[in-house]
Amino acid sequence: MEILNALVTLMNFVVLPAASYGAQLALGALGVTLIYGILRFSNFAHGDTMALGTALVILVTWGMQALGIGLGPLPTALLALPFGIALTAAFVLGTDRVVYRFYRRKRSEPIILVMASVGVMFITNGLTRLIIGVDEIRFDDGARFLFTVRDFREWSGLAEGMSLRVSQLLTLLVTALCCWALFRFLGRSRAGKAMRAYSDNEDLALLSGIDPERVVRLTWIIASALVVIAGTLYGLDKSFKAFNYFQILLPIFAAAIVGGLGNPLGAVAGGFIVAFSEVAVTYPWKKVAEYLGFQPQELLQLLSTEYKFAVSFTILIVVLLFRPTGLFRGKSV
Amino acid sequence: MKKLLLASAAGALIAGAAGAEEIKMGISLGLTGPLESIAPPIQKGAELAMKEVSDSGKLLDGSTITPIAVDNTCIDAAASVAAVERLVTSEGVKGIMGGMCSGETIASLEKVGVPNGVVMISPSATSPALSTLDDKGFFFRTSPSDARQGQVMADIVLERGINSVAVTYTNNDYGKGLADSFAASYKEKGGSVTVVSAHDDGKGDYSAEVAALAAAGGDALIVVGYADQGGAGIIQGSLDTGAFDTFVLPDGMVNQALVERFGTQLETSFGQNPSAEGEGHDKYAEMATAAGFDGTSAFSGEAYDAAAMMLLAMQAAGTSDPKLYKDKVMEVTNAPGEKILPGELAKGLELLAAGEDIDYVGATSVELVEPGESSGVYREVDFKGGKLNVVGFR
Which positions make up the signal peptide (chain B) (predicted)? Predict the structure, then answer.
């Protein structure tokens, strides 16, 4: 019984929040890593593209709600996702045409592309604020909980309870689906193989008849799909605020680098590693320890919650010091 | 006393000879930032008093008042200092209704207000730190110190039979001041505080903060924060994980936006905020409605009073020089004298011009205690039935 209580507390406060946060980071990191692997630069505009994409999804969601279209217990935003992805992909392809293509043709150093992406970041940032404003927006409709803490307590008879939100479950399921589809696409399909070939050796790929512009376009479209899905899930789970998407860029980059930039599997693993360490290090283990038979006087909190962001950076530094190519052997930074 | 009155009356006559002038008054509020939703009614409250005095034509031989509002952002002390600096040096204001949040108020007062000798009356800065600050008599506030709110909140919580609480506060001067004063008072009265921890505003996710509070435990969670910011995030996180169901909400958290967002989920929660009842309060609410804003919004009446007190003090001193009229603020606000309600500022100005004493009551029944702050009336509220209900005053 006591062990079950400890387990439930752990699930409620550590495992579930960290898993859904990790899944959101993983989707974001996948986008970063794809762009890094194929277009060969770190895209700083990623966080703000996420904000813009989510803002577009919200606008479409509002339109659908006004028309009375809904998904019952599921959030309407899921229906709006394809539209949001299409619009964001169009925007991102536009920035590629206007900004990045010029530097790609000139074969500029990656750092120049990175700086160009910082410019794109600021413009996207401003655009998002112009379109939807800076306020906190909640756009989750439908059922909020699969089961609440009270339901769980009554059902199990335990002293502790846990809840599962629809948005948490949705995040995990959608992320699993996206990863499966992406890995299958990269591994099996012709276009996916072309992308990998282009990533390995641009000139060789060109010689084998692969159209580089097509690979670039495909990369941008896939990256925007991932980023809009990640942003929408994050917004559904927490709430939408343009500035928060700018902040989430840091843990996303940490996740991508920890996993190994350019390595999709690493990005997913990195997302979960960063999320679980952020939550576990700042979680006070007192209650869990009590259920396990200890009598702690202190809260057993390693680091105060204000230092949450510091955790991902510490991991980042340790990984860069000992394994510069990341845990899963990506390209070195 | 008689001599003093005669002297001030004589002073008024001499100064009056200087003739009418255009007096600029500053309004320093967080028009953007964590309390932006309650700033507009505060600004309008102050402007209402200034317009009333200006239109009456009775202040210092028909001087007119021009309000100048600046955005102090509420959280960025540097931005606030810059904004107030501009008011004082380039606009040449004779007094400032503001600041709004405690941290920026302290900064702008110490860096600009006191060195330049400009009177500042804040409607809403409630940190206990402002009581002990060396303000050289230039600072007043129409809201009470949180040292007092902490005691009132401790009483309310204990009376409701809750003996163990966790406290979280927004990471700034206001949050820490109120949280500390509550915790000290609550412990002294026999309650136990499991944890006092800070949260930062403007984050997307508060699950880590909530997890820490839940691990410490307690029968209720005291949320000293902002309804537009982390405070609401903490409540959301606690409800989602079932960490707490009862929340105790002080000042900034008690508002309509919070009720609309959480509705019946706040069934067992309660709180208090500085607010007055009585004739002045009702009259002010009417005037505000006529002017097109909500006068019962938090700190709106306090703003009206803050502006009115400065203008009445000018009349009493016979000059708009802040270095001189600062000494009259307490005198016009407190008894003895003819009671002055909102809308009766013209009468107050006349009486002062005639050398008589007034007792400004205003929208919030304001009564100043040393060192220049309101003694404070709080309304106790609960959220039964998904509505904001006033339970009583204390």
Answer: 1-20
Mean pLDDT score of chain B: 86
Q: Nearest chain A Cα to B212, which residue? A: A284
Q: Which of the two residues, B17 and A140, has the higher pLDDT score? A: A140
Residues B281-298 have pLDDT tens digits of: 888 989 999 999 988 888
pLDDT on residue B27: 94
DSSP H helices, B127-206, are 129-132, 146-159, 173-188
CB pair distance less than 8 Å for B212 and A283:
yes
Q: Is A171 on the interface with B (CB under 8 A)?
A: no
Mean pLDDT of chain A: 89
Instruction: Check if A278 contacts B (Cβ < 8 Å).
Output: yes
Q: Residues A228-259: pLDDT tens digits?
A: 999 999 999 888 888 888 888 888 999 999 98
Is-above-0.80 flag for pTM?
A: no
Q: Report the pLDDT value the prediction gives residue A326, as an integer from 0 to 100.
A: 85
Helix (H) or strand (E) holding B122: strand B119-122
SS3 track for chain A: CHHHHHHHHHHHHHHHHHHHHHHHHHHHHHHHHHHHHHHCCCCCCHHHHHHHHHHHHHHHHHHHHHHCCCECCECCHHHHHHHHHHHHHHHHHHHHHHHHHHHHHCCCCHHHHHHHHHHHHHHHHHHHHHHHCCCCECCCCCCCEEECHHHHHHHHCCCCCCCEEHHHHHHHHHHHHHHHHHHHHHHHCHHHHHHHHHHHCHHHHHHCCCCHHHHHHHHHHHHHHHHHHHHHHHHHHCCECHHHHHHCHHHHHHHHHHHCCCCHHHHHHHHHHHHHHHHHHHCCCHHHHHHCCCCCCCCCCCCCHHHHHHHHHHHHHHHHHHCCCCCCCCCCC
Using CA atoms, how far apart are residues B273 and B143, in angstroms rounded to an integer?
10
Is pLDDT at B93 greater than 90 in this prediction?
yes
Q: Which residues of B touch A162 (CB under 8 A)?
A: 241-242
Chain B 218-237, residues with CB within 8 Å of chain A CB atoms: 228
Dump pLDDT digits (tens) for B187-223: 988 888 888 888 888 777 788 888 888 888 889 999 9
Q: Check if B264 contacts A (Cβ < 8 Å).
A: no
A314 inside 8 A of chain B by CB: no
Q: Using 50, 70 and 90 to split pLDDT, how confident is the model at B147? A: confident
What are the structural domains of chain A? 2-322 (1.10.3470)
Query: What does the radius of gyration of chain A's CA atoms come to, in whole angstroms?
Result: 21
Helix (H/G/I), strand (E/B), else coil: B285? helix
What pLDDT shows up at residue B207?
83
Domains defined for chain B, CATH in brackets: 2-145+277-374 (3.40.50.2300), 146-272+378-393 (3.40.50.2300)
Which of B:62-121 have CB within 8 Å of A? none
